[in-house]
Amino acid sequence: MQLLLEKIRQQGIVLPNNVLKVDSFINHQMDPQLMKEIGKEFARRFQNEGVTKILTIESSGIAPAIMTALVMNVPVIFAKKRKPLTLTEHAYTSSVYSYTKQETNIISVSKDYLKSNDTVLIIDDFLANGEAALGLINIVNEAQAKVAGIGIVIEKSFQEGAKKITNKGYRLESLARIASLENGTVTFYHEHSLKV
Amino acid sequence: MQLLLEKIRQQGIVLPNNVLKVDSFINHQMDPQLMKEIGKEFARRFQNEGVTKILTIESSGIAPAIMTALVMNVPVIFAKKRKPLTLTEHAYTSSVYSYTKQETNIISVSKDYLKSNDTVLIIDDFLANGEAALGLINIVNEAQAKVAGIGIVIEKSFQEGAKKITNKGYRLESLARIASLENGTVTFYHEHSLKV
């Protein structure tokens, strides 16, 4: 997705330990027009999958997920990272380790909102080691619903997540695929690196 | 906002301790068309305030905030509840107590994204005791920016938050104002209670 690659080139900051900081337009400050285009692109790519629900995880998955949901005209659920008092125990859960935050969270989705006849598109902002995406897949499987695919805004293709997901047979669509962050430079994967 | 009041009437569940559960359409599962209408309504109400930026707080403020930002065509920032490793110490912070979760969080916004010449519209899903909204106001003040006003999806008018904010002279616009949750029934404030 050309607009996204240009934004990453212009505003992304490469930090030590393979961290790509995009908090000027994706996950702290957000560009609503870019998010709208991201939503349209996910909706286009998954339009023939019979999606009935979108699932993401708080917090930075919410913006791309709701924009996709708006175009696809389906509800969106965000998994919570710990159970607030207003959620009952009536929930599907999965354990997710965050390498960035170095902590394990229980993510949960109320059983009221995922049913076995749902076809679920999973959306998240980043894919690195795949922990969050695999946790969301677990939750869909627990609900005996169908995974339509996984839509990722920025994939770090040099980490394990993408391979783990495609090896399990799931369709993965990433709008920006980063081959390397070496020497403080963003190199996109495949043909994308030529276009920018 | 009539559509919102109808949704609350139909799908809101009153729990003990004045908790109104709206997680089928606002803060767990979300209705994207409703969020779009909410965004349009906030944009309409604050259209003459010269808003340059929208500020909310993770997680459930993000959806109404980005929909408002999309209509107003300004960036949106979500305050983080604790500092992740990818944020530097270069941040405005405020302490916020959550009565629902019974815990205090430090909320933070990078100094890169709020400037003294910004006019900031604060958006959140709920207003009860006002802790989150006042924390966000503190952050705008710390940045020496201007508060355009506070837009709330659901205000519990029988709690202290609304009074605290208007007593400080800020413009508050709440799309649903709840006068009471007594006897397990949602009663809207003022004329709204007559229309539903």
Automatic annotation (TrEMBL), chains A, B:
Signal peptide boundaries: none
Domain Phosphoribosyltransferase: 32-166
Domain of life: Bacteria
Recorded GO CC terms: cytoplasm
Chain positions recorded as xanthine binding sites: 20, 27, 156
Catalytic activity from the UniProt record: XMP + diphosphate = xanthine + 5-phospho-alpha-D-ribose 1-diphosphate
Subcellular localization(s) per the UniProt record: Cytoplasm
Listed EC numbers: 2.4.2.22
MF-aspect GO terms: xanthine phosphoribosyltransferase activity
Membrane-traversing stretches: none
Binding-site positions, 5-phospho-alpha-D-ribose 1-diphosphate: 128-132
Keywords, alphabetical: Cytoplasm, Glycosyltransferase, Purine salvage, Transferase
Enzyme class, first EC level, given as a word: transferase
UniProt cross-references to InterPro entries, sorted A to Z: PRTase-like, PRTase_dom, Pur/Pyrimidine_PRTase, Xanthine_PRibTrfase
Pathway: Purine metabolism; XMP biosynthesis via salvage pathway; XMP from xanthine: step 1/1
One Gene Ontology term from the biological process aspect of the record: xanthine metabolic process
Family of this protein: Belongs to the purine/pyrimidine phosphoribosyltransferase family. Xpt subfamily.
Quaternary organization: Homodimer.
Function: Converts the preformed base xanthine, a product of nucleic acid breakdown, to xanthosine 5'-monophosphate (XMP), so it can be reused for RNA or DNA synthesis.
Descriptive protein name: Xanthine phosphoribosyltransferase
Species whose genome carries this gene: Calidifontibacillus erzurumensis
Gene (name only): xpt
